[in-house]
């Protein structure tokens, strides 16, 4: 089916507060035109992120009741550990409070001053931890990933030539591992093919470089392999996922995405020595190696969520609901990143607002304008998210986008229609949208808390 109906029914509902445009004008101003700073009660449809926003199932809520809140050796930990080993196939698991907790431990163990860490496009927290440990991130994603209007089945792939060149240039001994994200968040949720994963593994093995995965959205990646890669149509997502993970030496996981929970994460690996080191660090930063920052009940809910995530009907609906929104926008001529990725639709803000230069923060302005017009919250993924270079100038990313991120199991197709219509209506008056300038900017991860003002009197000229 092109757009299958929700493979779940609704047992509990959460009322959405409505606001009008006049109210939103004030609310947006108070939030410094930064959608991260909006109170959630003032948001109609919240597409800020798919991180931790998942609706848990009745079985997950039931899992909370069997939380074993022991400081050491919680029952729920053993169930989580067993589930991760079974579904992803790694030998060792270290629990963490969320994905960046795993990134912190991995980076501390593996990276030495002056090392290079290749990856298929940067991710904010991943890159921050690599840099804090003296490493330098090097982007080795295929060129198409940076080209919003070029279609491709696997635009998240590692560019094998770029990777080989880097090894030649800096020496394999200065590359502790390559980090392969599945799917690639910052490229618009684009997947990586099994063939590409195998090639990366082959080259890395030859050069004695470890292959780690940012497995945050690995189930979504597995679905794309089933849909698009020869030889996988008759395999289940569960089988494909296990085959994918089999090619990695380890993985960091934000449980807030594909593990279907509101908080949690883990670091997994096959190497016993690395596991030993990770357990000695996890007690410093997270907690005992049998809870790592999570309550027993949270670990139980995550174990249940991991099993639900590989349900074939769930994952098919998930991918196709996101595609539905993308198709609606594309049919109306809205410039979006193609093809639509796994967790979000990305609007190409430079195409949408061609009258603004990147210094005028077009994606930030567009996200603010969407909220003002409709109450829909989205997120900037452009020059504001990319931060500044070492010399203090803006880092100008090729992609300047607004991300409409779909939470898992939260909204219906009717909500997607509202979002599509809001963006389409705004497109009609796009030339009236003003650029923004910074009025407050923090030193790191500035997109979270920066504040702005419109360059003209009003964000949208009336
Ligand atoms: C969310 C995310 C992370 C970080 O995980 P948190 O749970 O937010 O700490 C890392 N990598 C990717 C690709 C992500 O989307």
From TrEMBL:
<feature type="domain" description="Aromatic amino acid beta-eliminating lyase/threonine aldolase">
    <location>
        <begin position="46"/>
        <end position="421"/>
    </location>
</feature>
<dbReference type="InterPro" id="IPR013441">
    <property type="entry name" value="Tyr_phenol_ly"/>
</dbReference>
<dbReference type="InterPro" id="IPR011166">
    <property type="entry name" value="Beta-eliminating_lyase"/>
</dbReference>
<dbReference type="InterPro" id="IPR015421">
    <property type="entry name" value="PyrdxlP-dep_Trfase_major"/>
</dbReference>
<feature type="modified residue" description="N6-(pyridoxal phosphate)lysine">
    <location>
        <position position="257"/>
    </location>
</feature>
<dbReference type="GO" id="GO:0006570">
    <property type="term" value="P:tyrosine metabolic process"/>
</dbReference>
<keyword id="KW-0456">Lyase</keyword>
<comment type="similarity">
    <text>Belongs to the beta-eliminating lyase family.</text>
</comment>
<protein>
    <recommendedName>
        <fullName>Tyrosine phenol-lyase</fullName>
        <ecNumber>4.1.99.2</ecNumber>
    </recommendedName>
</protein>
<dbReference type="InterPro" id="IPR015424">
    <property type="entry name" value="PyrdxlP-dep_Trfase"/>
</dbReference>
<dbReference type="Pfam" id="PF01212">
    <property type="entry name" value="Beta_elim_lyase"/>
</dbReference>
<dbReference type="GO" id="GO:0050371">
    <property type="term" value="F:tyrosine phenol-lyase activity"/>
</dbReference>
<keyword id="KW-0663">Pyridoxal phosphate</keyword>
<dbReference type="InterPro" id="IPR015422">
    <property type="entry name" value="PyrdxlP-dep_Trfase_small"/>
</dbReference>
<comment type="subunit">
    <text>Homotetramer.</text>
</comment>
<dbReference type="InterPro" id="IPR001597">
    <property type="entry name" value="ArAA_b-elim_lyase/Thr_aldolase"/>
</dbReference>
